[in-house]
């Protein structure tokens, strides 16, 4: 799926930087950050569907640790924006219970590393609800998760754990990379009848602005987005790494190399057809993600290419990833994450190999 977007200033507004408490309500197109797009989508859906509720630690009075829910409690009341105890297991249990009884809860895990106490309810109940009841019940819940590194946060606050959840049948795993995709995909996730893990790349929460119309138009789930056409090499990525990958494509273009850039967006279920079509054209593929290399989701894409696109490949698949360590603190954090230079080098290796 091809997509174009209009960007404005690369710096967040001063109001966004301090977390101004007012959920956007403009129907007209407005330049907003990714975090503002999250707030805007939540507010839109809460205005139009009384079954949507928001819950989590500090999401009400304080508007969330990243201010994603700022102003929602004042607008919709404390019965629909619920401040919970500091207990992720309870949050997950409440969310599954609400969803099974006809509500559409949107829960927040304050950080990616705080998801692990939620796994029992997510894996053993939310993901199995439709299967277990033979379709009599579904679990229309969304778990919002600030995801990934790059903000100089301590342990448990900078993890890229998406591959854990892509391995669970019954879950959708969505990872937007821009304000427009965050808005449209979150609306689609809330409207989906089954559980969605919605991972938000916090490194780019306020990194740049994009024109987003608050029109309630959802984007399709389960599709990849072709952000840039190319003919020499396919660059596949998701989340915050889309920015570096596009910059790498620009750098390659300056050297006469045409790179196609694909934002996976929905990791599970994977739109492999879009990736395969691109690789059939370019013959080469570089997969970029910040999670550890071993058993990262890039390995699944590489395996599918080996199974289904072997004869289209003219060189081995390259992966640019994090290392098989926990993300290091502070000084080494950006060294751990994929960089423009690492992506460019991988693309050149792929070109040199075939």
Radius of gyration: 20 Å
Second CATH tier, the architecture of the largest domain = 3-Layer(aba) Sandwich
Tell me the number of helical segments per DSSP (H or I, 4 or more residues long).
Answer: 13
Instruction: Return the CATH topology of the largest domain.
Output: Rossmann fold
Using the alpha-carbon principal axes, give the shape: globular
Unreliable stretches (pLDDT < 50, length at least 5) are 1-22
* Text of the CATH class of the largest domain: Alpha Beta
Question: What profile does the largest beta sheet have?
Answer: 7 strands, mixed
How far do the termini sit from each other?
27 Å
Structural class: alpha/beta
State the helical fraction.
25-40%
Quaternary organization: single chain
- What are the secondary-structure elements, in order, as H or E? HEHEHEHEHHEHEHEEEEHEEHEHEHH
Cofactor: thiamine diphosphate
Domain Transketolase-like pyrimidine-binding: 32-207
EC number: 1.2.4.4
InterPro entries: THDP-binding, Transketo_C/PFOR_II, Transketolase-like_Pyr-bd, Transketolase_C
């Amino acid at each position: 799926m091809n997509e174009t977007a209009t960007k404005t200033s690369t710096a967040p507004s001063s109001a966004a930087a301090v977390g101004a408490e007012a959920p956007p309500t403009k129907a007209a197109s407005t330049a907003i950050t990714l975090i503002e797009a999250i707030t805007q989508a939540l507010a839109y859906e809460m205005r139009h569907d009384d079954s949507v509720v928001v819950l989590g630690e500090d999401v009400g009075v304080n508007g969330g640790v990243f201010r994603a829910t700022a102003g929602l409690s004042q607008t919709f009341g404390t019965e629909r924006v619920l401040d919970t105890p500091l207990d992720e297991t309870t949050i997950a249990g409440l969310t599954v219970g609400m969803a099974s009884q006809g509500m559409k809860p949107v829960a927040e895990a304050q950080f990616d590393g705080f998801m692990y106490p939620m796994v029992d309810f997510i894996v053993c109940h939310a993901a199995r609800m439709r299967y277990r009841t033979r379709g009599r019940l579904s679990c229309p819940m969304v778990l919002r998760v600030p995801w990934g590194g790059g903000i100089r946060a301590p342990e448990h606050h900078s993890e890229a754990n998406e591959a854990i959840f892509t391995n669970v049948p019954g879950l959708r795993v969505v990872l937007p990379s821009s304000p427009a995709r965050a808005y449209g995909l979150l609306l689609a996730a809330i409207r989906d009848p089954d559980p969605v893990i919605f991972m938000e790349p916090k490194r780019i929460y306020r990194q740049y602005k994009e024109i987003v119309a608050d029109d309630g138009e959802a984007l399709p789930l389960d599709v990849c987005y072709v952000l840039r056409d190319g003919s020499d090499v396919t660059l596949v990525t998701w989340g915050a790494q889309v920015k570096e990958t596009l910059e790498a494509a620009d750098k390659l273009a300056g050297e006469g190399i045409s790179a196609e850039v694909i934002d996976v967006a929905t990791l599970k279920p994977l739109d492999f057809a879009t990736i395969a079509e691109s690789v059939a054209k370019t013959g080469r593929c570089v997969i970029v993600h910040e999670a550890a290399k071993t058993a990262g989701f890039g390995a699944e894409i590489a395996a599918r290419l080996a199974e289904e696109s072997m004869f289209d490949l003219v060189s081995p698949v390259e992966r640019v990833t994090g290392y098989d360590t926990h993300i290091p603190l502070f000084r080494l954090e950006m060294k751990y994450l994929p960089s423009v230079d690492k992506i460019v080098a991988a693309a050149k290796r792929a070109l040199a190999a075939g």
